[in-house]
Write a structure and sequence with these properties.
By secondary structure, the chain is α/β, with parallel strands linked by helices. It folds into two domains: about 150 residues, Rossmann fold (3-Layer(aba) Sandwich); about 220 residues, Rossmann fold, CATH 3.40.50.1100. The chain is built from 16 helices and 16 strands. The strands form five sheets. The chain has a six-stranded mixed β-sheet, with helices on both faces. Helix 5 packs parallel to helix 6. The longest helix is centred in the middle third of the chain and has 24 residues. The chain is globular, with a radius of gyration of 19 Å. The chain starts with a strand and ends with a helix.
Length: about 400
């Protein structure tokens, strides 16, 4: 299949290129002292991760420890409410630790173990990546430092407790807006001082090459499974697939299984309180090209060209940029990126919970809300939504702020 002169039959062989670029996006904009560390990770990934033993170990871990494959569920009552469009969800909430994040964390930690590293470092926003990496570190016997903004620590107290129980060192970040962007800043600064003995395990398809590629590849298990499962369940492909996009790890993995198919693909960004700068985190919708955290992509900027303040009810989506591959797929037109605001996301959170018995992460609720929007517009067909995580972590915050609807 070709789309705007890009051959998706060979897409993954050519994207990213040898320098980590998806078109003009990506690359590695890093300090000279980190270039050797990035090259070490790149070399290890292409060598170790392609070996039979690594692949065998990862497959065993996914099956025996993570509980993969995760199922697809048909949302029968919700589908009936909105007409003749059938809504389905890929249940990453049933992946061990309750979200998709463990898919790349187990891969990154396994790579660290093969490389002889003793420690993993990461940032987290909603806490799901932190919990997943703390879990992986405990499984492999590695030390683990997790950087998290003060605002997110308060919003995501259950996940902070989980990280600590799992043995991670949770480091509070008090600079700036005290959310995900500042946590990434702090984690990268720490890694610059410790890279010889540790590996940075970034939480999304962000950062300098090879992280956007590596995280996408580890997350591709979601898209591969979903495509096979949907064909087995229905005998055909879905008409549309939907995933939420902050940095974009769940979406990148999910989309990868369908890029070469005649399927409409939608990435959903957080509109938050509205389109005013500082009230949302919809970088692909409202941003411009720029470099931050070691990669070139589309970002939200303030009047000085620096990363702008961002906001979302979902801690895992409040980041002022998006993965470079998402920027590239947006420019190609292969994926349509749109927005859902806080209010619709919270409504979807309660609707899925009460009608289907599934409490979604508030990040995933953005995708559910957009799936409902498509169901109203399409008239007939099927929509497969990536339910990237469960909502246990969000319940106290949502009830405190919105009550129970």
């Amino acid at each position: 299949m070709k789309f705007n002169n890009v051959d998706f039959d060979t897409y993954f062989k050519n994207h990213p290129d040898a320098n980590g670029y998806f078109g003009k996006y990506g690359g590695a904009y890093i300090a000279p002292e980190l270039k050797a560390a990035m090259q070490e990770i790149t070399d290890a990934y292409f060598n170790i991760c392609k070996s039979r033993k690594f692949i065998s170990d990862l497959r065993r871990i996914r099956q025996e420890f993570q509980g993969r494959p995760t199922p697809i569920s048909h949302l029968e009552r919700l589908s009936n409410k909105y007409g003749n469009v059938h809504l389905y969800v890929k249940r990453e909430d049933l992946n061990h630790t309750g979200a998709h994040k463990l898919n790349h964390c187990m891969g990154e930690a396994l790579l660290a173990k093969y490389m002889g590293k003793k420690k993993v470092i990461a940032e987290t926003g909603a806490g799901q990546h932190g919990v997943a990496l703390a879990t992986a570190a405990a499984y492999f016997g590695l030390e683990c430092d997790i950087y998290m903004g003060s605002v997110d620590i308060k919003k995501q107290a259950p996940n902070v407790a989980r990280m600590k129980i799992l043995g991670a060192n949770v480091i509070e970040v008090t600079e700036g807006l005290q959310t995900l962007k500042e946590a990434v800043d702090a984690a990268f600064a720490a890694y610059a001082n410790e890279y010889k003995d540790c590996i940075y395990c970034i939480g999304s398809v962000l950062g300098p090459h090879p992280f956007p590629m590596m995280v996408r590849d580890f997350q591709s298990v979601v898209g591969i499974e979903a495509r096979e499962q949907f064909l087995s369940m229905t005998g055909e492909l879905p008409d549309a697939i939907v995933a939420c996009v902050g940095g974009g790890s769940n979406a990148a993995g999910f989309f990868s299984g369908f890029l070469n198919d005649p399927v409409d693909i939608y990435g959903v960004e957080p509109l938050g309180r509205g389109p005013k700068l500082g009230d949302h985190a919809a970088s692909l919708q409202y941003g411009t090209e720029g470099v931050m955290h070691g990669f070139n992509s589309i970002m939200l900027k303030d009047e000085n060209g620096e990363p702008a303040p961002v906001y979302s009810v979902a801690s895992g989506l409040d980041y002022p940029s998006s993965g470079p591959e998402h920027a590239y797929l947006r420019d190609l037109g292969r994926v349509k990126y749109d927005v859902i605001d806080d209010e619709d996301s919270v409504n979807a959170f309660f609707e899925l919970s009460k009608m289907e018995g599934i409490i979604p992460a508030i990040e995933s609720s953005h995708a559910v809300a957009y799936g409902i929007k498509l169901a109203k517009e399409m008239g007939r067909g099927s929509v497969l939504i990536n339910l990237s995580g469960r909502g246990d972590k969000d319940m106290d915050y949502i009830i405190e702020k919105y009550g129970i609807r």
